[in-house]
Amino acid sequence: GKNLLLKKAVVSTQSTGSLEKFVVDRVLFSVMAKLQIFAISCLFFLASSDPTVYFREDFADQDGWTSRWVQSEHAGKEFGKLEISSGEFFHDEVKDAGLKTTENARFYGVSAALSTPVESTEGKTLVVQFSIKHEQKIDCGGGYLKLFPSSLEPKDLHGDAPYNIMFGPDICGPSARRVHVIFNYRGKNLLLKKEIRCKDDELTHLYTLIVRADNTYEVRIDNKKEQSGKLEEDWDFLEPKEIADPDAKQPENWDDNPFLDDPEATKPEDWEQPETIPDPDAKMPEDWDEDMDGEWEPPVIDNPDFKGEWRPKQIDNTNYQGEWEPEMIANPNYFEDEQLYIQKDIKYVGIDIWQVKAGSIFDNILITDDEDFARNLAKETFEASAAGEKEKKDAKDEDERKKREDERKAREAAEAEAEADDEQEDDIEDDESAFAEDAEVESSLNDAEAKAEEIKDEL
User: Fold this and answer.
1) Count H helices, E strands: the chain?
2) What is the DSSP string of 220-266?
3) Of 131, 145, 241, 386, which has the fewest Cβ atoms less than 10 A away?
4) At CA 132, angle to CA 358 and CA 357, rounded to 5?
5) Residue 29: in which H helix or E strand, if any?
6) Tens of pLDDT, residues 152-174
7) Helix (H) or strand (E) segment spanning residue 412
8) How far apart are CA 322 and CA 305, in angstroms?
9) How many other CB atoms sit within 10 Å of the CB of residue 396?
10) What value does the mean pLDDT take over residues 295-323?
11) How far is 22 from 349, CA to CA, in rounded Å?
């Protein structure tokens, strides 16, 4: 390239006799070369920065989900039916449609294969994101997802099937309302040691788990950070570096009593008193016959002077050595793992839950290696629908409130009308009763007058 440039410069100089043109050509060539390198670098960056979407499901094709998701047929489980629904309130009926649980007191077990199975997340971020709406005012039931290895038999999916990650809300009663983040590590399911409270209202909420290559994690709810930290600190992935020496024994002369009896304390002379005494106010019944009933004895009562067992007062033990603890030694089972974040062999995503009260709607399931892509997708889907959904929910609640108010007023009006009718009937009965009584009085008077006339005639 340099030789070609030199030849061009010589020709140019000879033909024009201008040194300035040689310099201009040299500068233009350098600029063009740098622009080419920059363009190639940009293309490489764009190609390498494209997110890997392992799985995405928005149920936009309605019943088409049945061709992608497999219903478990595991023996001994009564699985509930799932159907596509937007629920009772939504922003966009088509876009907000998801997979809904429909039968109470049922297991739910379906799974779908990832479009791009995860072979290894080494050097990458892993993001699991989905939305769920508990429209039924759930009081006990799961709302989480599980990521399964290739060993899963989809038609045999059940609660004991091994999984890689379990993530999402779980509700059981008013106090147990948490977001599960469980990793399977060396065959053990490890629970998050921190508490993350899940949402328990009737609106749609978005749950996001981010596992980064620096062995940190983040849990987001509704696209806002709820919890974060280090994997090693917030899960029991690794054994402790040190453990108590299992062969250590407490010395026989070790004094671990903080107090001891006062050697100068003495028991008071009047301390010993019986626990019960005969009732001094009791008297022998007058009809007591000692020959027939035996010798009379008064009943016993608690002795108010009884003080219990005497114990000397306690004083500080000057020889107290504290609570004995065995020496700490290196844990032979400890090992370091700087790649706790790595997940290998993820082939399926599944819904494996139990619900007492059905009605939950799963939607917008995403598994990717790009948290920015997931965050932007959440803005396009969840955030775009959340405000509209809440408006519809508020309007629905207001309509129900007005309906209850109208029903209350109608009920009160009917009760008032019935009470008025009862009072009117009572007044009529009182009038009739009074008329009957007057008639009886008048009849009695007439009878008396007639009798008096008869007596008068006789006289």
Assistant:
1) 6, 22
2) EETTEEEEEEEHHHHS--S--SEEE-TT----TT----SEEE-TT--
3) 241
4) 15
5) helix 19-49
6) 999 999 999 999 999 999 999 88
7) helix 384-458
8) 39
9) 13
10) 92
11) 65
